[in-house]
Design goal:
Blueprint: H1 10-26, H2 35-58, H3 61-87, H4 95-120, H5 132-161
Helix pairs in contact: 1-2, 1-4, 2-3, 3-4
Amino acid sequence: MTYERFEDLPVWQAGIDLGVQTYELTANPAFKGYGSLRDQIERAALSISNNIAEGFERGTTPELLSFLYIARGSAGEARSMLCFLERLGGFADLKSQISNLKSLAEGISRQLRGWANSLQNSDIKGQRHLTEKASRAFQAKRDRDEFLEHLRQIRESKAANQ
């Protein structure tokens, strides 16, 4: 599936969810006296969706990859701070919320890694370099590959039924 807007990307939406839920977590009175920790975890969580958006809008695959890795780093940073909160006294009442945020951050990291891996193996240099001729050639190759895969599946199905 091709996405026209970063707002439609499932990983960007998950990043926004993580940011919102992180801000909801840090609004808890338990963060009183932990202003720098609160600010840092909020910045890391918000950085994820912002870097996905910026990379998407840049228009080249190398730039997008760079920002995806930055976003993935921010997801790791947020997860690390959530692990710290789990061990820090005074946050026991928030254990379930913290655990859910850690899982969300880990899922985002996996999605970003998968997307980055697929981009690294792509022949397309990015939207900025995608001429009409290059786009048609890429689509023709994708259609051919899908057709060949479909034929392979039919062949395997017939062999299994004999």
